[in-house]
């Protein structure tokens, strides 16, 4: 089981506020902790959009002892699903996380995302109900 602690949050926000993308959180003066489960964001001025930023997928928290390169190969976290397999240009497989914080969730045992690079083939796979959702249906040529 992966346990997220405030150490991870402080580490990651130290990178976020000084690296690429710092413009989006420039109002954060410092991030401090009070134990393993409490983090305080000290702001330079009021910023109501910070809560929205924290609630989106643009603010991931992951262990600081795992390198970004390793996270891309085998991601870990505390979400509803656990990573199982990634086959480049084929599929991504995840399974239900038995240690998820909300008992009885998620409802699914797992998900297999099929990667179909060709737009026409992707759209055709949707017609006979082989897929239930299509992401990125625009051509990027």
In a few lines, what is going on in this structure?
With 141 residues, the chain is of the alpha+beta class. It contains 4 helices and 5 strands. The chain folds into 2 domains: 67 residues, no CATH class; 48 residues, 3-Layer(aba) Sandwich (D-Maltodextrin-Binding Protein, domain 2).
Output the number of helix runs. Answer: 4
Q: Any idea how many domains?
A: 2
Q: Give the CA-based shape.
A: elongated
Strand order of the largest sheet: 3-4-5
Total beta-strand segments: 5
Measured distance between first and last alpha carbons = 42 Å
Mean pLDDT: 75
Largest sheet, in brief, is:
3 strands, antiparallel
Structural class: alpha+beta
Helix content: 10-25%
Description:
- Strand 1 and strand 2 (39-43) form a beta hairpin.
- The longest helix is centred in the N-terminal third of the chain and has 11 residues, at 6-16.
- This protein has a three-stranded antiparallel beta sheet, with no helix packed on it. It has a two-stranded antiparallel sheet with strand order 1-2.
- It has four helices and five strands, in the order αββααβββα.
- With 141 residues, the protein is α+β, with helices and mostly antiparallel strands.
- It is 22% helix and 21% strand.
- The relative contact order is 0.11.
- It has two domains: 6-72, no CATH class; 79-126, Periplasmic binding protein-like II (D-Maltodextrin-Binding Protein, domain 2, 3-Layer(aba) Sandwich).
């Amino acid at each position: 089981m992966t346990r997220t602690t405030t150490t991870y949050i402080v580490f990651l926000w130290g990178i976020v506020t000084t690296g690429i993308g710092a413009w989006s959180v420039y109002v954060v003066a410092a991030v401090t902790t009070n134990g393993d489960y409490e983090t305080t964001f000290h702001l330079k001025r009021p910023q109501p959009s910070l809560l929205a930023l924290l609630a989106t997928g643009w603010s991931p928290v992951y262990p600081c002892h795992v390198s970004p390169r390793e996270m891309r190969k085998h991601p870990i976290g505390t979400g509803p699903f656990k990573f199982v397999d990634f086959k480049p240009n084929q599929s991504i497989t995840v399974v239900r996380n038995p240690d998820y914080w909300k008992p009885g969730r998620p409802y699914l045992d797992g998900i297999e995302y099929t990667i179909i690079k060709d737009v026409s083939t992707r759209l055709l796979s949707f017609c006979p109900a082989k897929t239930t959702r299509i992401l990125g249906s625009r051509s990027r040529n």
